[in-house]
Amino acid sequence: MPADPLATLAAAFDPGPALFALMAAAFAAGLIRGFSGFGTAMAFMPVASAATNPVFALIAMQIMDTAPSVPLVIRHWRDSAPREILPLMAAASLTVPLGVWILKTADPITVRWMVAGLILLLVAAIASGGRYTRKPGLPVTVAAGTMSGVFGGLAALSGPPVILFWLSGQSDAKRVRANMMVYLSLLTAVSITSLAVAGLFTLKAVLWGIAVMPVYVIGILAGGKLFPLASELTFRRMALGFITCAVLISLPLFDAVLR
Predict the structure, then answer these.
(1) How many of the other CB atoms lie within 10 Å of CB of 243?
(2) Which of 58, 30, 168, 63 has the alpha carbon at shortest distance from 115?
């Protein structure tokens, strides 16, 4: 007799304490994404990786982010700069598979330390306040896109290199936020394709991604309400502060608390 599909899904879903950690991380990630245009992986991945493992967390995050990305692209396309986005997208799309390969072959704890260290370094670089005084050339643009693709495949960290790229330039907060909303949403499709080709999808990770999606959407909506209230300086400080806190509390040292 064929297995009951509902029973199969229920068995695969297997909710546990870790799911609540993912829900909390999803809300925080949505709040930061809605406010700043970036930060989903920065807020979600460290906590979710500690509660499960890096591959599981990455799949759940990509599923969680897929459906909400569609209206974000539609809403923010008008305020974005496609000529700035497309060269980055081209470079990143070519290097996402390399990041996925590293994820598939590397030790999970090592990946987590790499992710945390990378985020903290990039936060420090952005917080230092250095900015381009002229338009960056093609080599800098390609380098940022290449790093974005590798980090995206490795840990869904497509954002940090291009965040640094745009925040270091002369664009205002509204343009940076719109660019990030569109860029990260479009790159989600590339990342999901690469992960599927690598055979990393599991039913449980997909189901958990769907389960935390509503909480993520609520966070995005709440963050979007906060953005108009913030100045340029507040925008940068709050985004970087949220991200730093998420990384520090979810280092492998604290696994006993999160699992």
Answers:
(1) 28
(2) 58
Q: What's the mean pLDDT when you consider all of the chain?
A: 81
Task: Dump pLDDT digits (tens) for 239-252.
Answer: 777 767 767 766 77
DSSP 250: T
From the list 66, 55, 53, 57, the residue with the least C-alpha distance to 23 is 57
CB atoms within 10 A of CB 106: 13
Q: 63 vs 132, 201, 203, 225, 248, CA distance in Å?
A: 35, 10, 11, 24, 25
Q: What is the pTM of this model?
A: 0.76
> Which pair of tokens denotes residue 67?
């459906």
**What's the farthest any 2 CA atoms get from each other in the chain?**
69
**Residues 44-62: what's their mean pLDDT?**
88
